[in-house]
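Morning F.,

Quick status update on the modeling queue. The single chain you submitted on Monday has been processed. Sequence for confirmation:
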Amino acid sequence: MGVFHVVGGFMSLYRRLMKEESRLGKIVVRSPKTKKELLDRKRWERVTKILTRRYEYGLDTFLDDLRREDHLDEIRDISRIRMGS
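Structure tokens below.
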């Protein structure tokens, strides 16, 4: 049985995962010390893993960063060649 909202009807799995990831992203800590913090962290990691594997969530920004680094490397190489010549 899905989650029912009065305004929009049933939410898709993707929308529920996005909502949960957003909610957990605000409260999760990097180094959990209490049991509740550890459970929140594990749940956030699980939701993020599902989003990444099933929906390729967040991969676009990661790939853009890699492309940007490659582009900057090419610019540096060209600059070195021009300086050396």
